[in-house]
Amino acid sequence: MPSVVFLVPGDLGSPTGGYAYDRHIIAGLRDAGWTVEVVALADGFPWPDAATLDDAAARVAGLPDGSLVVADGLAFGVLPEIAECHARRLAWVALVHHPLALETGLDEAQRHRLFDSERRALAAARRVIVTSQATAQALRDYGVPPERIRVVEPGTSPVLHERRKTTEDLSMLCVATLTPRKGHGVLVDALAGLQDRPWTLHCVGSLARSPDTVHALRHAIAAHGMAQRVHLHGEVDADRLALHYAQADAFVLPSFHEGYGMALAEAMAHGLPIVSTTAGAIPGTVPAGAGMLVPPGDVPALRAALARLMDDAAWRDSLARGARAAGARLPSWGEAAARFAEALQHP
Q1: How far is CA 178 from the centre of its chain?
Q2: What is the C-alpha separation between 75 and 57, in angstroms, rounded?
Q3: Are 252 and 217 in contact, with CB atoms under 8 Å apart?
Q4: Domain ranges (residues) in the chain
Q5: Which residue, 128, 221, 287, 319, is the most exposed by fewest CB within 10 angstroms?
Q6: pTM score > 0.85 for this model?
Q7: Which tens digit of pLDDT belongs to each residue from 164-187?
Q8: Residue among 147, 156, 160, 126 at smallest CA distance from 240
Q9: What is the arithmetic mean of pLDDT over 110-138?
Q10: CA 39 to chain centre
Q11: Count of other CB atoms within 10 angstroms of residue 89
Q12: What is the CATH topology of the domain spanning 3-155+331-345?
């Protein structure tokens, strides 16, 4: 049977889109008969300390010659020396969710450092798998030949809960780890000008990855007097997340960049009208009939889109129908895993 090693930084169980993608693909490959070994690297990527780098070097050195190794880009992009050192004896496959240098909040020195590091690492990979055409396009700047890139979009899970209305207010859902890239501050500023309307916002996502972002967001929520309307739920389990989707009237994600936007796909699968941005792969994930996209970071444009969402019930219903239709066309995780396996087997 075919075999593969997955090199994953930190906890594979982390509730982010990238880790969820890894988990589903690993499970799908195993269901298809693959032998999959998961090698966990220490946490701290993409800014590993010396001990983390030493640990990664030792774990990679221990892999048998000829191993097919899928390395999650969160780590692979900052391990160019290790990638180069083992390029002849290991078959590297880089899994790039989005280029590291496109993370929001980096200074120029950090951006250049990540770009140069990831460019070197990708040059050592025999195959690069990305989760969207937009990311494939972005990797042209890294010198990756197009013939070495395969696009394997995420799958979606079956919708197990029927939508159910619980309040008269328009209930908006945002599913995203609280980091600068996700744009929660922009969303709160936009909603601050719409307090004459009945709405609530439920934010689901880790509060631990960027404490400064969380502190600033809590301060903004309090300063605008919206503590009773904006709810930060933190991480929740899969059942609770499904209930959040089922109880929402609309989905909002004001990201500055997305390599795909798995939460957006889940929202469409649940038939939720979407307000998001034109950043990264989002326009390729959310078709025009399913949502309204505005420039990232544009508070007035986001506020106008949210106002129309709140005020125009017919438009909102039209977007919901479009989202449901788009969601029905999305691949399952089984289909995504089959495409991933094909990408591994046909270099």
Answers
A1: 12
A2: 12
A3: no
A4: 3-155+331-345, 170-328
A5: 287
A6: yes
A7: 665 678 999 999 999 999 999 999
A8: 160
A9: 97
A10: 21
A11: 12
A12: Rossmann fold (3.40.50)
